[in-house]
Design goal:
single chain; 201 residues; alpha+beta; Alpha-Beta Plaits; 2 domains; five-stranded antiparallel beta sheet; four-stranded antiparallel beta sheet; 22% helix
Length: 201
Amino acid sequence: MATDTRSRAAGADASNHSGRIRHVISALVQNQPGVLAHVSGMLHSRGFNIDSLAVGETEDPLLSRITFVVRGDDRVLEQVGKQLEKIVTVVRVIDISREDFVERDLMLIKVDAPRELRPEIRGLVQDFRGRIVDIGPEQLMIEISGPEKKIESFIDLMRPYGIRELARTGRIALVRSGHPSLARVEADDEPAAAVVGHSNL
């Protein structure tokens, strides 16, 4: 089974059709009611193109980590950082995509699975290191986790069977061990490297 490649390596899918770079941003915020609404509202009101947003408590119960993916050039990234740092409850903003990092997405997907097709579907689930978490008379619910490309590839393989429901957590990410310097999102930073070089599995 193929392993993840270095996330800083340039990949063919590092940008979208207009050549905008994909940035993974992590914001440490005070764990208070309304913080997520404040941050997401600010991003929406300024028209930032957010691909994914996830939030959860950190190792410090007083702090939460908001991880989101934004596409754009360095000017867009600079604007995102400046706007986030104006929010009182935001403690620190990090552009994780400047570092060597690991990212994951978790998906639950419910697909049509007549009995004669279940061995075939089970084989695909095993190939993607997923697991079946619910078995119904006519459907299976499958759990898959991994990089974005792996999730998208599995979705494409399930479409011919019939996808009934799908839920995803959004991307979360952490910098790999041995990389203590974290690039802050600031105006005088070096241009961000192109992101993403994950294998499909």
